[in-house]
């Protein structure tokens, strides 16, 4: 990793697998970002780079690397061990922190409690260019994302058939809409949707304010 690689990433801009951080404010905040990348598709954090892509450098690479390592060790469960490079850039140092997609999902945050829409799962994922708390449905899906797990087989009953009919006609559905459609509790609706996502029959979409589900295949295919 050299300054040309860093420059190329900066020109690419922040996104799903890349985040800029001007400085390291706390191990807790770093841990949330580490977890979000590990729980999703992996990514890179550039410390010492402002939101607009300008290079400001880090104050002390040794102490800040120690803070990053502490975040992965003490605030992530299971622990996350990022790959870290120090890249000199016009007299200033940029810390390049690579996080690989985990094979032991989900990773949980061990810091202070956060709540979103009444939930506190302590699991974070990457959504577009943001670190977001995962819903209970996403956590259940992550728990079963082990690549060594055998394919899941599901039984198709009346609830599932009504779901497929709705999606063929309306494209998408939320958890609450599905619960109302089949007249069942949110908990049971969640179990059905998670099972179908795990089986590869439907997809979950997390990039909007409220998650929704779509078919994993083209209707009529």
Notes on the protein architecture:
This protein has 221 residues and is α+β, with helices and mostly antiparallel strands. It has two domains: 3-134, Schlafen, AAA domain (Methyltransferase, Cobalt-precorrin-4 Transmethylase, Domain 2); 150-215, Winged helix-like DNA-binding domain superfamily/Winged helix DNA-binding domain (Arc Repressor Mutant, subunit A), CATH 1.10.10.10. Helix content is 36%, strand content 21%. The protein is built from seven helices and eleven strands. It has helices at 3-12, 27-39, 61-74, 136-143, 158-170, 175-182, 186-198; strands spanning 18-21, 43-47, 76-77, 83-89, 92-99, 108-109, 124-127, 130-133, 172-173, 202-205, 212-215. The strands form four sheets. Strands 1-2-5-4 form a four-stranded mixed sheet. Strand 4 (83-89) and strand 5 form a beta hairpin. Helix 2 packs across helix 3 (61-74), helix 4 (136-143) runs parallel beside helix 7 and helix 6 (175-182) packs across helix 7 (186-198). The longest helix is centred in the N-terminal third of the chain and has 14 residues, at 61-74. It is elongated and about 65 Å long. The mean pLDDT is 88.
How far is the first residue's CA from the last residue's CA?
45 Å
The name CATH uses for the topology of the largest domain is: Methyltransferase, Cobalt-precorrin-4 Transmethylase, Domain 2
Classify the beta-strand content into a percent band.
15-25%
For the biggest sheet, the summary is: 4 strands, mixed
Strand order of the largest sheet: 1-2-5-4
CATH fourth-tier homologous superfamily of the largest domain: Schlafen, AAA domain
> CATH top level of the largest domain?
Alpha Beta
Q: Radius of gyration, rounded?
A: 20 Å
Low-confidence stretches: none
Structural class: alpha+beta
């Amino acid at each position: 990793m050299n300054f040309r690689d860093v420059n190329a990433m900066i020109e690419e801009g922040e996104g799903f697998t890349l985040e800029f951080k001007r400085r390291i404010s706390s191990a807790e905040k770093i841990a949330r970002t580490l977890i979000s990348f590990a729980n999703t598709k992996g990514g890179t954090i550039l410390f010492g780079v402002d939101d607009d892509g300008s290079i400001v450098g880090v104050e002390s690479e040794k102490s800040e690397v120690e803070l990053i390592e502490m975040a992965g060790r003490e605030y992530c469960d299971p622990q996350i061990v990022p790959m870290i490079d120090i890249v000199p850039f016009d007299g200033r140092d940029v810390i390049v922190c690579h996080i690989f997609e985990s094979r032991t999902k989900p990773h949980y945050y061990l810091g202070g409690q956060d709540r979103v829409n009444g939930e506190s799962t302590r699991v974070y994922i990457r959504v577009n260019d943001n670190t977001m708390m995962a819903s209970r449905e996403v956590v259940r899906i992550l728990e079963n994302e082990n690549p060594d797990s055998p394919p899941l087989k599901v039984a198709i009953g009346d609830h599932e058939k009504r779901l497929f009919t709705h999606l063929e006609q309306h494209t998408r559905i939320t958890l609450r809409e599905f619960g109302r459609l089949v007249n069942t509790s949110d908990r049971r609706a969640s179990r059905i949707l998670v099972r179908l996502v795990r089986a590869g029959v439907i997809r979950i979409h997390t990039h909007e304010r409220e998650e929704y589900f779509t078919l994993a295949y083209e209707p009529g295919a």
